[in-house]
Every structure is written in structure tokens, then in C-alpha cells.
Design brief:
242 residues, mainly alpha, 9 helices
Length: 242
């Protein structure tokens, strides 16, 4: 004890000398050193407000992402400074039932007639496990759907690439034929390609003579057909006897 007082220093010794003595009941089973420690603890340790501790205990609910096991451990720690006495387990049960964030578990609590703390914990853990399984199934199904969509997208992209390559090949072939051909197209009147060339402007043109599409007015054959018919009729008239 002398060593302890020496370590306290002059200021600490002055504080110690002015500390109130312990009651006979508190000091009955303690030696001189333990009495000294007890007096210092009573002076320096912060005073615990039971009302405030119970207030914090009553406000504590299960936080998002907090497991049932973690929640009950926090409640037990808070209850240790609330001086509940013999009602501690009952108060823990009540707060656990009120603060549990698992809705289905809370519904099950009220179907029980005066359940114990251990019973409500088991119920909550059961529903917690069920919810975790359901979420896992949802995530698995979502992943599978995303994978299926990815496969469909891959197939579609592959088909588009194949079609694009095919079109490029056909256009290349048509352009090659155009370069090698010196005839005249009857759709647009240009030289260097056939009338079936997809790049020919005549495909999109509309004739102002006959009203038909797929050739320009300049290349309309309707006038030639009429002229040919007139010539044929003239020849027939010449062959007839007077």
C-alpha cells in the first residue's frame, strides 16, 4: 500500500486522504490494499446511470446486415449495466422481439405464448437462414439469366458479323464485275455494271414516263416499245394490197 501511495504522488495522496471511508459491510472481507483500491475505484471510475443505460438498451434494434447472433450479443452487453437483476433474461427477450428486423420472425414470435429467450433466438435464426437461402437462389437465377442473355447477344453479334462479311463479299464481287464489265446498265444508263448491281442508283429511282420504279426516266423502255409497235404496224400496212 505504501508503494501505491508513493506512486500516486503528492496530489494523489492528498486526494486519497480525503476519500470517504467504506462502509463496514463493503470493507468486511477486504484487506488494507483492497480497501485502498476500492476507494480509488469509487472515486475515479465514472458513475453509471442505470436510467440512461436502460434507455440505450430500449432503443437498440437490429441494424441492417447485422446477424441474429451479433444482435443478441450487443443486447447482452448493454443489459449488463442496466441492473435488471432476476428479470434480465425476460427483458432481453422483450427487446430482442421488438428490435428484430426479420419480419417473418417477428410474426412467428407473436404466435408463441410467452416464449423464452432461447426460443425466440432459435426462431429468428431459422428465418435468417431461410432468407439467406432465398437470396442465394435469387442471385443464382439472376446470374443464369444474365448468362443466357449474354449467349443470345453473342449469337446475334456473330450472325451480324457473318451477314456483314457476306455483304462485303457480295459487294466486292459486284464491284469487281463492275470494273471488268464495260456494258451499259438499262436501269441508270451508266457503263461498267449490270442492271443487277446492288449499288446502282436506278434501283431507287422512279420513272416519270411510265410511273414505275427501279429505272430512271432516261432509260425507260416504254417509248421504245411503242415505237417498235408503230413500226410493225407500218410494215403490215405496206404489205397489204391496195
Amino acid at each position: 500500500m505504501s508503494l501505491l501511495l508513493h506512486c500516486l504522488g503528492a496530489e494523489g495522496q492528498e486526494v486519497f486522504e480525503n476519500l470517504p471511508e467504506l462502509s463496514a459491510e463493503d470493507a468486511s472481507e477486504l484487506n488494507e490494499f483492497e480497501i485502498c483500491i476500492k476507494k480509488l475505484d469509487l472515486h475515479y471510475l465514472p458513475k453509471v446511470s442505470t436510467v440512461l443505460e436502460r434507455y440505450h438498451f430500449g432503443k437498440r434494434v437490429q441494424h441492417p446486415g447485422e446477424s441474429v447472433e451479433e444482435y443478441i450479443m450487443v443486447l447482452r452487453k448493454l443489459a449488463s449495466s442496466c441492473s435488471f437483476g432476476s428479470n434480465k433474461e425476460e427483458r432481453l427477450r422483450d427487446q430482442f422481439m421488438l428490435g428484430c428486423s426479420i419480419e417473418k420472425a417477428r410474426e412467428s414470435f407473436w404466435n408463441k405464448d410467452n416464449p423464452s429467450l432461447s426460443e425466440v433466438i432459435v426462431i429468428a435464426k431459422m428465418h435468417e437462414h431461410s432468407s439467406a437461402c432465398v437470396e442465394e437462389i435469387k442471385r443464382t437465377n439472376s446470374t443464369e439469366r444474365e448468362y443466357d442473355v449474354h449467349l443470345v447477344s453473342q449469337r446475334k453479334n456473330k450472325e451480324e458479323r457473318v451477314n456483314s462479311q457476306k455483304m462485303v463479299k457480295e459487294n466486292s464481287k459486284a464491284n469487281k464485275e463492275k470494273d471488268n464489265f464495260q456494258g451499259r446498265c438499262y436501269r441508270c444508263g451508266e457503263f461498267g455494271h449490270y442492271a443487277n448491281f446492288k449499288g446502282c442508283v436506278g434501283w431507287k429511282a422512279s420513272c416519270k414516263k411510265c410511273g414505275k420504279k427501279a429505272h430512271v426516266t432516261f432509260c425507260c423502255r416504254r417509248a421504245d416499245i411503242k415505237k417498235k409497235k408503230v413500226q410493225e404496224i407500218s410494215l403490215v400496212d405496206e404489205d397489204l394490197p391496195d
